[in-house]
Structure to design on (157 residues):
């Protein structure tokens, strides 16, 4: 059951990241066309494109955690595979706690921004929801990995 949840989440996240990438590219092309042919741009397009870059990168990071987490540590090369397998769950627990803490603070930051932004800029504040959403998804993926267990090198495709 947890692995099905993880697979469904990954599909939804990949679809959302792809949709944001396509929207970003289409909006950029429309903006270029509007500037070249009509000598004016699309109002708010550059701000929306900037936030779409954030959406694509943060959702891409979430998908990357599921697919093949980047590990930058020397210790994994110095210890045996048995120890690596023993340490994976505690490391995933630590990652869950770190991402959960970042999620909590991102929610607080986003909520504060939402309350203090003018009504004309609410849509910009709404786009900032990617920060708490991405940290929540990262935390969820790490928590699911604690439950599911480590992926051995043989199981990773």
């Amino acid at each position: 059951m947890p692995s099905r949840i993880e697979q469904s989440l990954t599909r939804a996240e990949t679809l959302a990241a792809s949709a944001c990438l396509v929207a970003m590219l289409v909006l950029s092309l429309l903006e270029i066309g509007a500037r070249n042919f009509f000598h004016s741009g699309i109002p708010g397009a550059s701000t929306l494109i900037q936030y779409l870059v954030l959406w694509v990168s943060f959702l891409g990071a979430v998908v990357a955690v599921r697919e093949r987490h980047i590990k930058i540590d020397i210790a994994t090369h110095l210890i045996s595979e048995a120890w690596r397998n023993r340490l994976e769950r505690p490391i995933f627990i630590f990652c869950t706690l770190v991402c959960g803490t970042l999620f909590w603070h991102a929610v607080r930051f986003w909520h504060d921004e939402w309350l203090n932004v003018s009504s004309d800029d609410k849509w910009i504040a709404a786009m900032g929801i990617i920060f708490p959403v991405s940290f929540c998804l990262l935390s969820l993926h790490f928590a699911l990995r604690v439950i599911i267990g480590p992926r051995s090198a043989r199981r990773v495709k």
